[in-house]
Amino acid sequence: MSELTYQSGFGNEHASEAVPGSLPLGRNSPQKVAHGLYAELLSGTAFTAPRAENLRSWMYRRQPSVVVGAYQPLAQPWLKTGAREGAAAVPPDPLRWAPLALPAEADGADAAQDFIEGLRTYAVNGDPDAQTGMAAHMYLANRSMERRAFVNADGELLIVPQQGRLRITTELGLLDVKPGEIALIPRGLAFKVALPDGPARGYVCENYGAALRLPELGPIGSNGLANPRDFLAPVAAYEDTPGAYEIVKKFGGRLWTAQQGHTPFNVVAWHGNLAPYKYDTAHFMTIGSISFDHPDPSIFTVLTSPSDTPGWANVDFVIFPPRWMVAEDTFRPPWYHRNVMSEFMGLVLGQYDAKPEGFKPGGASLHNAMVPHGPDTEAFAKASAAELKPHKLDHTLAFMFETRWRLLPTEFALKDSGALETHYADCWRDLQDQFKTP
Ligand SMILES: O=C(O)Cc1cc(O)ccc1O
Ligand SMILES: [Fe+2]
User: Where does the record place Polar residues bias (predicted)?
Assistant: First the structure.
């Protein structure tokens, strides 16, 4: 597959045309758009949102997206939305899941499922109608979406591939995304997912709240963490093959399907600051302790969706990338803690220092508000005895969706998946009372 080209810079006023002369100059909606195209606006914030937060893009397309048939309900029993679809009683235990098998390995080739069919919701909070909260899903896909597009009116999607590359076609152009990279699909933008390497597995944060953005840097200054220029938006590209298309829409927590006679990927030119992005976490400029103590994980925030209370994120996307550990006289892994925020974690590759053996790539864990957790017995013993020379945590990538609201696991996560580890809490059971009365 040929290398794609991109436009760089998070939130830039991007501009791109697949056919020269398609973008209007000096206005957005001329009486007649060049080449017989239609102008269509997609807004990501209220029209009157403050300028610094305002998101919208203009598309110039062969037919506007209003040209679509009537929608019918579409069953997808594993996809859940908002707190009302979580478990009624959430145990206050730490929870962890083994990786789910990829569909081809588990069920043979007939059990083909695409990105939409392969979504499995693990945990939910909030309510898309109140524009708060999130869902943590996994996807397990072994079939490319061909003449089928997905539009999520409930939230934006942050996709974290764990295995297998994705070619994501969007209305605004193409993104190639591999494990170690992430993709961000704005609320309401049509996209489809193809699997150039075959079966793919990964994590999705569906964000019902304010759009994810780069965090403030405070005393860090004007550079560091995820730098804006490393986010890549697509260039305009359109499909030219005639024929029908299915549009699957997530709208109010349910899926709906409609047919139309043409591709929705018919945008010849676009401009604006609402765009899908990909980002390679290898570009994350990680900051850590160069003196002593283990800092709060907020230093690893890639993107944040603020809530209405400053500092209490609707959701933070936090990564634990390869990094040097150099702190002196310090217990270097995470401390034992109870967090008022809720932590859903995944592992893309390698080992996570708080659970070197027990947490597997493709697995997941949930440490809800005030649920105690921290290094397992083995990690505690190793880190307490380690010689504190500089040490590189390498070949590793864990991440966390950290949210202000308690995450309710689904029935699938608790029962049907069969992946919930029944004895997870045993990993701390052997932490003995070592107190010696002086
Ligand atoms: O619990 C976890 O593994 C995530 C985490 C990591 C860290 O370095 C500090 C706090 C925290 O919640
Ligand atoms: Fe934690």
Answer: 1-10
